[in-house]
Amino acid sequence: MNTKKYCPLDHTMNLIGTKWKPIVLFHLLDGALRSGVLQKKVPGISNKMFTQTVRELEKDGLVERIVYPVVPPKVEYGLTERGKSLKTILLSLDSWGANDTSNKLV
Amino acid sequence: MNTKKYCPLDHTMNLIGTKWKPIVLFHLLDGALRSGVLQKKVPGISNKMFTQTVRELEKDGLVERIVYPVVPPKVEYGLTERGKSLKTILLSLDSWGANDTSNKLV
DNA sequence: TAACTATAGCACTTTTAGGTAAGTTATTGT
DNA sequence: ACAATAACTTACCTAAAAGTGCTATAGTTA
Hints:
Chains A, B: Keywords: DNA-binding, Transcription, Transcription regulation. With 106 residues, chain A is α+β, with helices and mostly antiparallel strands. Helix content of chain A is 52%, strand content 13%.
């Protein structure tokens, strides 16, 4: 028996409710990317926050980390099936922002 | 001429990319609510964060603050048209979390 | 042999988010 | 007279998030 009542958005916010996670996930929608390439696509993120963000996304099963045993290191990040299920939401978020009036007028 | 390139999700994240904003907005989807009622619907939020959150949402034109000049005070919050345009996204976020497997199995 | 590479970890500091408790308001009911 | 009320506001403090700079790795190329 579960005594905790359902709290709207609670689960979702715990998984992707941070500043960087949706942005990182968004850039993986078109396919896996090398670590450095992905990081460059996220303007303003620090090295530390990037690592921390993808680590959490990996822990939560939203992204997959593929390590190639070469030197210098090569690591790719891609969406898992669970991560891909966010596609609609991520595209909606982006297109909302792109179409929102204040984005154009200010 | 605008020299800044378009950064996906940047605008969206600036407006609603915090822990509390999506939750507050979600609870207003069915119509305006009195301040106290709305706050009770957001579990775990402190009085201070609630006030701060709705103030920012108001500043950004996503919610409307309606003050009734009575004593004791009566204040209602409702979505603006701009706020209502988030409806699809908010519902998607909620239903994603509700259907996400790990939410059931863990 | 020394520099370069891509990725990430670590220690340290700063910045921001957030919590707690108190005070403010003006009218109504006791 | 005074307590109760709803919605804040402020001051003060702690905890969490995030930035900065340094380190390690090991094979390839100059």
